[in-house]
């Protein structure tokens, strides 16, 4: 692509913006090409770091290419801009969260969309020509592409000042405010790049950087903090109107040019985001609420008209008197519901093998999320919206991720023998079955030899969690494979915990369910004892659920009908988690305990009880909490 040059050199992935005559403005195609490159290099062992730079002395990237947004927006088509922002913000998040060093060289202007590309990496280098700014309020937008994330973390009230005034930051200011990390004279940049390409070691930058120039913003921060400390844009405007001095006069002149609505939104967003739980994704999701609406309900189209179409520099802003009603801010920042930014990509190609009670709903949720799913099940089960394969190998061919949900380790090994040879290098085999640790580790080793990533990711949450997309995944395998599968975990579940190396996901599941089996037996025993002691079940629950006997088995999944939150006990013990599945997991725990020479007497006892319940009594096909009616009928002898 002529506007962006993507290649590998030595230990580095190289991305160079190559449209200097347009100040390297970021187009949609450049954004997508950049994202694909960092996706490809994420799991490439030959790429140790990523270097992002740009041609020409005037600009690293002076912003996004917004002319097409204006044209389509004026035609009443808001979807082009929304898609641009949605995909651009996803790319911004990936840069901020990238597992490898991302080194950017920020000469000249770095503004708007350029900040999103150049200022979220791990090693951001500025020189004497660097001028970094977030000027979006001047075109009726808000500081986006993660700009609010950076601004909300700036010292004191400098975030409000930079966001409202579009103040340009030289190298000293950029480092002081957190938009950059290192200063180095620009005539040394080629040497720095050559060293990075040769060594792949970003730590060398610190030795080649020089002392950062002084920051004018740091010198004036006390005045800025006082002037921009108001709770709303109106408060800040009043402070500036009634203050004297160069800082106040310069700031007031700047904000008088900008959209009052945009500035009021910026203040509100920074105040919402300034909290310990701040993440880049929270900031981008909040920004997208505005950008999704800004062409239709904000000042964006008028701002572009005045700035780059008619160039009359006389925008007709909403709320031109500066009095922005709170309701106008609230409407722009309301959650978007199903239109919310979810960081979903256009879709992976997924093979799904095993479409039973758990696998079927999981596959259906992936289809609904926009992924291309090809399913295979020995029983011929099909999923609406998914293609059907005649073999497991066919389902795996060409897939980015192959998901399996299978009954046991022996079947997993057999399926792995079929699918791993059919998988493309770099793809990920994601096994969500509950199997023995040894099988999980052997399959992972087999996948590694074929150049395929592997994860063992058993689930907790049952059929309801599979249908509702609220499963918890316990994941073993490499960090790189985990990052590849993370967007899918976010669709199929509410939590995914990376537990370490291959097999550790199964180990976590086995240990968790051994605890669950033991505590459910103890809970059922205690209710049966309470009955025989004349203690009501309601009183028993009220005491235990708020004291030292508290457990998930009691508080969330109470085995006594009509007591506590609704559970399978209230539905005749129809299974949410079948007793035979608990028996399977307990047997796996004892198999693992024997292999590890671990003493697990309670796990052993629970296994024996569930074996008796399922195989010799009436437990087969009932929920594992149906141990309670079993104990009701048993006497001590």
From TrEMBL:
Keywords: Branched-chain amino acid catabolism, NAD, Oxidoreductase. Residues 349-500 form the 6-phosphogluconate dehydrogenase NADP-binding domain. Residues 503-628 form the 3-hydroxyisobutyrate dehydrogenase-like NAD-binding domain. Its EC number is 1.1.1.31. Coiled coil: none annotated. One of its GO terms (molecular function) is NAD binding. Residues 13-321 form the Enoyl-CoA hydratase/isomerase domain. Transmembrane segments: none annotated. Pfam families: ECH_2 (PF16113), NAD_binding_11 (PF14833), NAD_binding_2 (PF03446). It is an enzyme of class 1 (oxidoreductase). One of its GO terms (biological process) is L-valine catabolic process. InterPro entries: 3-OH-isobutyrate_DH-rel_CS, 6-PGluconate_DH-like_C_sf, 6PGD_dom2, 6PGDH_NADP-bd, ClpP/crotonase-like_dom_sf, ECH_dom, HIBADH, HIBADH-like_NADP-bd. This is 3-hydroxyisobutyrate dehydrogenase. It comes from Pelagimonas varians. The gene is mmsB.
């Amino acid at each position: 692509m002529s506007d962006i040059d993507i290649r590998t050199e030595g230990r580095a992935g190289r991305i160079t913006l190559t449209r200097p005559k347009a100040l390297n403005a970021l187009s949609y195609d450049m954004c997508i090409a950049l994202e694909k490159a960092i996706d490809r290099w994420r799991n490439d062992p030959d790429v140790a770091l990523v270097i992002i730079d740009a041609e020409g002395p005037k600009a690293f990237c002076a912003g996004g290419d917004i002319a097409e947004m204006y044209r389509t927006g004026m035609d009443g088509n808001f979807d082009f801009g929304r898609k641009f922002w949605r995909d651009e913000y996803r790319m911004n998040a990936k840069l901020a969260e990238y597992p490898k060093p991302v080194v950017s060289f920020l000469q000249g202007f770095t503004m708007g969309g350029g900040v999103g590309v150049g200022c979220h990496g791990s090693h951001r280098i500025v020189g004497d020509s660097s001028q970094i700014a977030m000027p979006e309020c001047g075109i009726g937008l808000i500081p986006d592409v993660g700009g609010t994330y950076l601004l909300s973390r700036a010292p004191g009230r400098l975030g409000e000042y930079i966001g409202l005034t579009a103040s340009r930051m030289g190298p000293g200011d950029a480092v002081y405010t957190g938009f950059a990390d290192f200063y180095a004279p620009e005539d040394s940049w080629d040497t720095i790049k050559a060293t990075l390409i040769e060594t792949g070691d970003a730590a060398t930058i610190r030795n080649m950087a020089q002392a950062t120039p002084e920051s004018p913003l740091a010198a004036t921060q006390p005045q800025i903090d006082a002037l921009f400390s108001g709770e709303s844009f109106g408060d800040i405007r009043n402070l500036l109107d009634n203050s004297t001095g160069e800082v106040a006069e310069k700031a007031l002149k700047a904000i008088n040019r900008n959209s009052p609505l945009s500035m009021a939104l910026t203040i509100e967003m920074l105040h919402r985001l300034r909290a310990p739980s701040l993440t880049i994704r929270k900031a981008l999701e909040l920004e997208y609420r505005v950008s999704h609406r800004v062409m239709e309900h904000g000042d964006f189209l008028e701002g572009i008209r005045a700035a780059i179409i008619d160039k009359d520099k006389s925008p007709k802003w909403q709320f031109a008197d500066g009095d922005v009603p709170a309701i106008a801010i609230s409407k722009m920042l309301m959650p978007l519901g199903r239109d919310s930014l979810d960081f979903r990509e256009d879709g992976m190609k997924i093979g799904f093998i095993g479409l039973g009670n758990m696998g079927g709903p999981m596959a259906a949720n992936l289809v609904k999320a926009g992924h291309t799913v090809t399913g295979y099940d020995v029983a011929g089960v099909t999923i609406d919206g998914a293609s059907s394969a005649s073999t497991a190998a066919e389902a795996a061919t060409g897939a980015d991720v192959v998901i399996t949900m299978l009954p046991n380790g022996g079947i997993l090994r057999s399926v792995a023998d079929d699918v791993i040879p059919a998988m493309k290098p770099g793809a990920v085999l994601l096994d969500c079955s509950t199997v023995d640790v040894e099988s999980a580790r052997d399959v992972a080793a087999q996948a590694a030899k074929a150049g395929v990533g592997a994860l063992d990711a058993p689930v907790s949450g049952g059929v309801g969690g599979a249908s509702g997309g609220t499963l918890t995944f316990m994941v073993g395998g490499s960090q790189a494979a985990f990052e590849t599968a993370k967007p899918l975990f976010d669709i199929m579940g509410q939590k995914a915990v990376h537990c370490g190396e291959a097999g550790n996901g199964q180990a976590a599941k086995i240990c968790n369910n051994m605890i669950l089996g033991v505590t459910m037996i103890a809970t059922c025993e205690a209710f049966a004892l309470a009955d025989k002691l004349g203690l009501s079940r309601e009183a028993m629950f009220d005491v235990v659920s708020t004291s030292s006997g508290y457990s998930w088995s009691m508080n969330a999944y109470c085995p006594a009908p009509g007591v506590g939150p609704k559970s399978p006990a209230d539905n005749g013990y129809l299974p949410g988690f079948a007793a035979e599945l608990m028996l399977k997991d307990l047997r796996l725990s004892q198999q693992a305990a024997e292999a590890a020479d671990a003493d697990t007497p309670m796990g052993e006892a629970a296994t024996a009880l569930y074996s008796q319940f399922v195989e010799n009594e009436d437990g087969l096909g009932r929920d594992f909490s149906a141990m309670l009616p079993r104990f009701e009928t048993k006497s001590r002898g």
